[in-house]
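To the team - iron/sulfur cluster complex, inputs and output below.
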Amino acid sequence: MLHIDKLQVELESESGLVRALDGVRLSIERGETFALVGESGCGKSMTALALMRLLPENGYVAGGEVRIGQGRDQTDVLGLPESQMRGVRGGRIGMIFQEPGTSLNPVMKVGQQIVEAIEAHTALRGEAARAKAVEWLTRVGIPEPERRLDDYPFRMSGGQKQRVMIAMALAAEPDFLVADEPTTALDVTIQAQILDLLKDLQREQRMGMLLITHDLAVVSGMAHRVALMYAGQIIEVAPAEQFFSAPRHPYARALMRALPGGDRRGAPLEAIAGTVPPLTQRFTGCRFAPRCAQAMPHCAGTLPDLIDVAARHEVRCLLYSPGAPAAAAQVVAAAAQPAAPRINLATGPLLDVQDLRVRFPIRGGILQRVKGHFDAVAGVSFQVGAGETLALVGESGCGKTTTGKAIVQLLRQISVTEGRVLLEGRNLLELQGEDLRAARRQVQIIFQDPFASLNPRMRVFDILEEGLAALQGDLDATERRSRIERLTDQVGLRRDALGRYPHEFSGGQRQRIAIARALAVQPRLIVCDEPTSALDVSVQAQILNLLRELQRELGVSYLFITHNIGVVEYIADRVAVMKAGLIVEQGASTEVLEHPTDDYTRALLAAVPRLQAAL
Ligand code: SF4
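Output:
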């Protein structure tokens, strides 16, 4: 249904010509789900945009072919005039994007939007199109479809909006569907429903599907074939089963070993050193060579082609070229890591949260008077031991982030907080003035988005010094500088980073700065609020390793807020599961994750896509 050959996309940028795609070749059959995976910036979304001719203004196709359809029905997508291309987009090629909230028109009823898609791409008009829209809303599982047609998008939940997007994309009965991170913005139980729905509809309609995602576990449950991209090229393509059970490219193997999970507990994750090379350069050798643990002397000076290694399995790596030393012998098994000693939890709780309740005022009317209260946290109790990691898990809106912020005392001005938050026996909720400042030193927080949490106008040195000066006024300038330099070493940043601004760093480096800032005042407890969910797998591995090492060195405790069960299995000693402001189950993480007793925990765990990587 789709053939892409030697596709080249270039972007003009301030730093020069970016060769975003370099010779991408793939084909997708009717009824096949083909997944394009890779870390951010590797070119997977650019491939989708190029085939739909939706490249950014500074981008253009510099070469290659894109064809959809078969035989006499085949269309040369890149050669079509834009007027005909509009019929192809949304007609023969359906599209679903990550954020349904921004893809739907907020001022148009959802029914109108679906009807518009049907009328634009099929022969149905008026009442017949409306009846078709009702039929599609029913098929995508929206209850009371006739009534919901007249709702605006804001009245729907994220999962419902994504269902509407799917209905819109499929109502035109496309040959082919492009789904770009279709469930990334959704909670895990909704994600499971949407993935099942997509799978069923795709089978019924016999559509080809290009699934783009960074989540390997989602791919393993959905795709027939997988292509891994790196620096603008496909570097491995294989049937999904083979890709996950026997990946061949050194990058693919390293990525699988970087995934956190229970089986990796106690050992560092494999972090892939270095970063993706800038695509402004002309390559004369393998793009992965500077980071490859198996690089050979000629890798830096030879451009590798895709090589057949098994049926429908190709790899772009010189280890597999004819005449190379036997590839299998080159594959270094992951070094067995000695298990780190687990922390002794018998030392009594560092943090003891008792019946914590957080209520936010609901305001209304012209004077914005308080009309009532909303209980975000409705009475939770848990403990965190010294040097221990407790994971707080649950879906968005369950109250886990509010609990974390209440412990760090970030909600004092805007909420009513009740209960007791005892840090080494002292109730943080009752402290004022100097006592509160002293307690704040003990409990720090790291957020999901390191960019938003770092002041863009301050240099890294000033960011780190700010907290020190505020919370540890007894240190003089020389002591502060030497502590800051030690911290930069500890979190793995170079000392010259201190003179630079946050925007000059990658996401992973910015998270290191945020961790250094939290550590600057030598806290006993750090609330980590989804600290790795915005990061790529290889960078996530670096940050998880760093947090683990710092815990071992400094004995700091973590309250780890996350929805990623693999991360929980890897890093947490104990886990507490939250639902609607309450903890429904807590205990040792192996116990809760392997033998959950609560129905909600069971449903949550069942919805998590699992990847049994062979490495
Ligand atoms: Fe590593 Fe060489 Fe293969 Fe590139 S070609 S992935 S450097 S072994």
